[in-house]
Amino acid sequence: MKTSWRSASLVASAAAVLALTTACGQESAGSAAGSQNVGATAPAATGGLGAGSGYGGVDASATPGAGAGAGASAQGGTAGELAVSANAELGKILTDGNGKTLYRFDQDTAEPPKSNCAGDCATAWPPVPADGVTASDGIDKSLLGEVTRADGTKQLTVGGWPAYYYAKDTTAGDTSGQGVGNKWFALAPDGKKAKVSALAGLSVRKDPNLGEIIVDRNGMTVYRFMKDEAWPKPVSACTGACLEKWPAVAPVGDDVKGVQKKGLMSFSRPDGVKQQTVNCWPIYTFSGDKAPGDINGQGVGGTWYAVAPDGKPVGAPKQ
C-alpha cells in the first residue's frame, strides 16, 4: 500500500507541474528571481517632484504659473467663460475661456470643498481662480462655487471639487494631466472625473517607436521586469521600494482586447496582493509615466521593458 500511495503522489505532482508548464510555457526570464531589486532609477528626464508624488513630474524650480500662463493669467487672473469641450478619448470635459482643460484631484474633498494641493503641487497644478468665472450653455451654474485656500485666495469648485490647470498642458485641448499618478483627472461638466471609457482592462496601442505594446485601462504603458519568473509559476522579484516605482497591475479578468489570452492569469504576491500576468509574466506600470502614451520606463536599468501583445518584452536584448 505504501508503494501505491507514493506512486499516486508522484503522478499527481507531475500532473500539476505539467499543467503549469502548459499554461505558462518555458520562456527564459533572462535571470533568476532573486532578492528585492528596484531596477535602477528612473531616467533623469522624468522631472523633479518625485515619481510617487502624483504631481506629474513638473520641476518645482520652473516658472510658477506655467500652466496658468495660457489660461487664467491670460485673462487678467480669471478663467473667463467655462465651456464644454468634446474630447475624442474622454468625452465631454470642462475647459476655460482659452480652451485649457480643468482638472480635479482625488486627495481633495468636495463635501466640504477643500484643496490639499499646495506648495510644489500648486506649481505643477495651478488652482483655477474663482473670480470672474462665467458659464456657457451646457454647464449647470448651480454646480459652480469657490473655496478659500490656505493663502486666502479663492479657487473655483465644480460640484464641490477644487479645479486646477496642469502646467504641462501648453495648448488648448491638451489633456496630458489625465490619469497622472492615478489621482488627477479632467473635470466632466457635472464635476465628476472624465475617464477613458473605450479602453479594456488591457489593450494594445501602436507606439511610433516601439510598435504594438500593451496598455492598461487608463492608457498607461505596461512593463515586464526581466528578473521575474513565469515558469513553473509567476514570481515577482519587485517588492518594497521597487513597487513604489513600478506598481503591480491589478487583475483584469477577461477584459482584454488584442492581448494573447494564453497565460493570461493573476497570481497572489507574497504580500497577498493579486497581480495580473500576460503569458504568465507579471506586469507593472511605471510611476515615471505621467500621461497615456509615455514610455519613460522603457529600458530602465536594462531590466524593464514594455510588453508586446504576446507577453514578450519589447526591445530587450536576446538572451
UniProtKB/TrEMBL annotation:
Cited InterPro entries: Lipoprotein_repeat, SCO0930-like
Pfam families: Lipoprotein_15
Signal peptide start and end residues: 1-25
Domain of life: Bacteria
GO biological process, one term: alkane catabolic process
Keywords, comma-separated and alphabetical: Signal
PANTHER family in alphabetical order: BLL4220 PROTEIN
Name listed for the protein in its UniProt record: Lipoprotein
Higher taxonomy: Bacteria, Bacillati, Actinomycetota, Actinomycetes, Kitasatosporales
